[in-house]
Amino acid sequence: xxxxxxxLTVQGLRCSIxxxxxxxxxxxxxxxxxxxxxxxxNGVGKTSTLRGILGLIQRRGEVRLDGERIDGxxxxxxxxxxxxxxxxxxxxxxxxTVAENxxxxxxxxxxxxxxxxxxxxxxxxxxxQLAGTLSGGQQQMVSVARALINDNRLLLVDEPTxxxxxxxxxxxxxxxxxxxxxxxxxxxxxxxxxxxxLADTAVVIGGGRVIHTGKAQEILDDxxxxxxxxxxxxxxAA
Length: 238
Description:
This protein is α/β, with parallel strands linked by helices.
């Protein structure tokens, strides 16, 4: 992979759920480094775009990972090619322990257990606790840790700070920042302060289509753009 080649290229992505079109025509390229935020108002197709890239919902269009087409592959094959996923609703195994949840996610001979332990020391202390008895914030840590325990080429992260207490938001944000030093992250996030702290570039979706791309900071610093594209004032993102 050359520095100029994007890690992810999406061209004309169209997705549907139960016969209903949820993504109309999404096209963008993602740099091979840093964090790219997917922004937009509620219900415009952000989560569906991530799920479409991963093949979790019916899709058409072209998706390339480091130049290789993956849109014809089933989800497990895409994951095996090094795409990690942190779903919006965590989707942990509540009746398994923290350690068992992480073990199930391991795909390589030398999983990054020490790396995950350094990012989330609270999970080390709770390794034998049933995941379903954890707080919402701790469950989110498990969900993120499952993705980070492998050496991925790309991470898809969906609303990682949704509903979390401010302290946990800070911890999860810092974990993603550290992770982004070694793996590019495509991040769906409604908390614009988190976007400001993490994202280099941004893709804005409206009505199932990409309506704007650019530097995240420039979008958040432009009151008119922020209001038109996201429905909030720039001050709310400061």
